Inverse folding.
């Protein structure tokens, strides 16, 4: 037979943590066909076995295969490993409040997961994900392009949804990102936000400016606080981040390069060094690439530096 028909190794994503976030992410990856094989791993064997069985019972209707259980060997030979395990954010808590216990959990997991999949790309979703991305990279010693966090990818999607609702256009027409920490110091980059190429401040309806500064402030705050409102209402956010993880998996396994606002360690950027924060980055099978040089106005640079300082202080607190 021709060599062009050579068999291809099935792609595999492993999701660590079978709580509401991990299970929703596995479900999203399955129905979207994000990878050929979706593995779900958790030390809570009874819980993860039940989740895997429930997912597997729908195998007839999805393009991917599910596997998993309570043994870390289930994650072996993964192309992408997504860590969602950790203490859950409670009503009234900030993401940074979780740092102590979750830093220990992520450190322990990396020591177990890397030997199983030494060539994988590792994505941290566990909060505070920016800080834990640095922890995971340092304890593993992996190249920085292969350890990062989902960052503000979901926050930016929330912002784009809110802008689309206000402008009465479909979400794919909206181009806007939230930068900085995935947390209380994040901020929308309004200076480059646009709707199909029209700067957002120039968007009009019947000659009237649609996005006044007051509207922009309200939309930015609503996007930043969305998770708190959802947590207060139902205890956790899971569907949005589940879909986010599936989309990120597709970007990491796809043939081309995507530009996504994810959180990776930055060096010598606006005087920021050694912390992970979100800016648009190239994402591909090689992991995280260069930061896309979007122009920031002075006030946005100030906000980015403030966000970086907040993250730097948290990292120092862990080390002390």
């Amino acid at each position: 037979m021709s060599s062009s028909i050579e068999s291809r190794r099935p792609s595999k994503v492993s999701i660590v943590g079978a709580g509401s976030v991990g299970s929703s992410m596995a479900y999203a990856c399955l129905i979207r066909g994000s990878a050929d094989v979706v593995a779900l791993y958790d030390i809570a064997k009874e819980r993860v076995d039940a989740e895997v069985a429930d997912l597997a019972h729908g195998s007839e209707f999805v393009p991917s295969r599910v596997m998993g259980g309570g043994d870390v060997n289930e994650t072996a030979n993964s192309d992408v490993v997504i860590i969602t395990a950790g203490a859950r954010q409670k009503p009234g808590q900030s993401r940074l409040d979780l740092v102590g216990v979750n830093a220990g959990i992520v450190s322990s997991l990396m020591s177990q997961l890397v030997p199983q999949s030494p060539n994988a790309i590792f994505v941290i979703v566990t909060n505070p994900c920016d800080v834990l991305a640095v922890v995971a990279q340092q304890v593993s010693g992996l190249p920085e392009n292969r350890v990062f966090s989902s960052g503000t990818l979901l926050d930016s999607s929330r912002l784009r949804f809110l802008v689309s609702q206000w402008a009465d256009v479909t979400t794919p027409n909206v181009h806007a990102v939230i930068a900085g920490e995935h947390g209380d110091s994040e901020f929308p980059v309004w200076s480059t936000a646009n709707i199909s190429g029209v700067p957002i401040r120039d968007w009009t309806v019947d000659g009237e400016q649609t996005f006044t500064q007051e509207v922009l402030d309200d939309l930015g705050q609503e996007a930043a606080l969305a998770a708190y409102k959802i947590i207060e209402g139902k205890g956790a956010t899971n569907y949005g981040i589940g879909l986010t993880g599936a989309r990120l998996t597709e970007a990491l396994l796809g043939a081309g390069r995507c530009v996504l606002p994810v959180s990776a360690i930055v060096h010598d950027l606006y005087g920021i060094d050694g912390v992970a924060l979100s800016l648009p980055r190239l994402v591909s099978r090689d992991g995280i690439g260069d930061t896309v040089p979007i122009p920031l106005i002075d006030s946005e640079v100030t906000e980015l530096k403030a966000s970086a300082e907040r993250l730097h202080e948290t990292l120092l607190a862990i080390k002390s």
